[in-house]
Write a structure and sequence with these properties.
14 helices, alpha/beta, 6-stranded mixed beta sheet, 26% strand
């Protein structure tokens, strides 16, 4: 069959209809590639619109090739934050070490990207909005699988049938819960909780991070440019997840205030700003680990299937690579063989990147005075010049070429 015959066959064959739940990163990336392979794609998102702004995220290694193939790499290069230094501070506020961020994260200067989350979601949405149906202010209520498809009832009351459904709603995925059961069985708690929010940049910070530590506690101020605001970050060790606080903003603020009650440096001002902030995001530091990422005609992608935690710095990259691999595995296969290929070809990459979590925790959040002292000694000995190679895990998968 010639290439022209293949294209004609694609145009005359009824397009398989798929639904993606979640319009952050993994969802639109998956939509892009599935549309490329001839699928009719619908994306449903419970929020009323795309979330703009947001905290900085990293795109590294294999994921850089994904965004290059999508044609959005130049746009992301223009949005690159160019963080220039991270300064670590001791409990009394004295400087421990000031380093290039890539020296700490294992990134590659001049290659890896750091952009605001909203800049990436905007680039992804722009790349697919003319070819993909978006349903905002709605979500999946029920899923009913059969041999012929998936009957979906939406919260808004409408009903539709799709050939496949994909969950891309993040760590606390509703689709995963409907399909596989409660989150607790896949949730690997890593011993910390955190809160992020924005506050006025009264510190004169520009393109830099200040990270304060005492045993089991950390506070950071992150200036992504010369803006009037900084991203504030508070992290603390917690033996068990505070389940009563996860859905109670007042309890979250009270918990954090108590943990940091005697902290010095700029922490009292950060706590005061947190109490007035309207954008506080609180969660546990955790991973999602699942034996399988699909069931029947429904599959998971990104954090919903394999959240690595921010300690690895690889959540966004895993979402982009996972979306590429999932769509490509379905380019010329049915759902059963495609899902099997997706898991087989992607799991090793996920595993090695989730394994980076120990390195991140030891560097950023030592829990004892001895561990903090050892961490500080290591930081003082690090070269100020970042590596030109990066961590092997970031590029542990060579992207295959998929054809429809």
């Amino acid at each position: 069959m010639t290439h022209t015959d293949q294209l004609t066959d694609i145009r005359t064959t009824p397009r398989r209809k798929v639904l993606i739940s979640g319009a952050s990163i993994a969802g639109p990336a998956l939509a892009f590639w599935l549309n490329r392979y001839g699928y009719a794609v619908t994306v449903v998102e419970k929020a009323g619109t795309l979330r703009s702004g947001g905290y900085p995220i990293d795109v590294r290694g294999t994921a850089l090739e994904v965004v290059r193939r999508m044609g959005i790499l130049p746009q992301l290069r223009d949005a690159h934050i160019d963080l220039r230094r991270i300064t670590f501070l001791d409990g009394d506020g004295s400087k421990v070490a000031s380093l290039h961020p890539h020296t700490v994260t294992g990134g590659v200067a001049g290659a890896d990207l750091e952009v605001r989350r909203g800049d990436l979601t905007d680039a992804l949405h722009t790349a697919v909005r003319d070819d993909v149906e978006f349903l905002f202010n709605d979500s999946i209520d029920t899923l009913d699988q059969s041999a012929h498809g998936v009957d979906v009832t939406f919260q808004g009351g409408s009903r539709r049938t799709f050939d496949m459904v994909f969950g891309a709603e993040g760590t606390h995925s509703r689709t995963r819960e409907m399909l596989f059961g409660p989150e607790e069985q896949f949730h690997r708690y890593l011993g910390y909780c955190f809160a992020v929010f924005t506050m006025p940049n009264t510190f004169g910070l520009s393109h830099e991070t200040l990270m304060w530590n005492s045993p089991g506690r950390a506070a950071a101020l992150y200036a992504v440019g010369d803006n009037d605001e900084v991203h504030a970050f508070l992290n603390f060790a917690q033996p068990e997840p505070p389940f009563d606080a996860f859905r109670n903003p007042a309890a979250q603020r009270d918990l954090i205030t108590g943990v940091f009650a005697d902290a010095g440096w700029e922490v009292p001002g950060m706590i005061a700003a947190m109490r007035d902030a309207d954008d506080v995001f609180f969660d546990a530091v955790s991973q999602i680990r699942m034996p399988h990422w699909s069931s029947g005609r429904v599959a998971l992608v990104g954090d919903a299937a394999y959240a690595p935690s921010f300690l690895t710095g690889q959540g966004t990259s895993l979402a982009l690579v996972g979306a590429y691999m999932l769509a490509g595995s379905l380019a010329d296969r049915d759902h059963a063989t495609g899902f099997a290929a997706y898991e087989h070809d992607t799991r090793d990459f996920v595993t090695v990147n989730q394994g980076l979590v120990g390195e991140g925790g030891a560097t950023l959040f030592p829990t004892t005075a001895r561990a903090l002292e050892q961490r500080n000694d290591r930081l003082r000995k690090l070269s100020a010049i970042p590596s030109t190679e990066g961590r092997p895990a970031h590029s542990a998968l060579t992207l295959p070429e998929f054809t429809p």
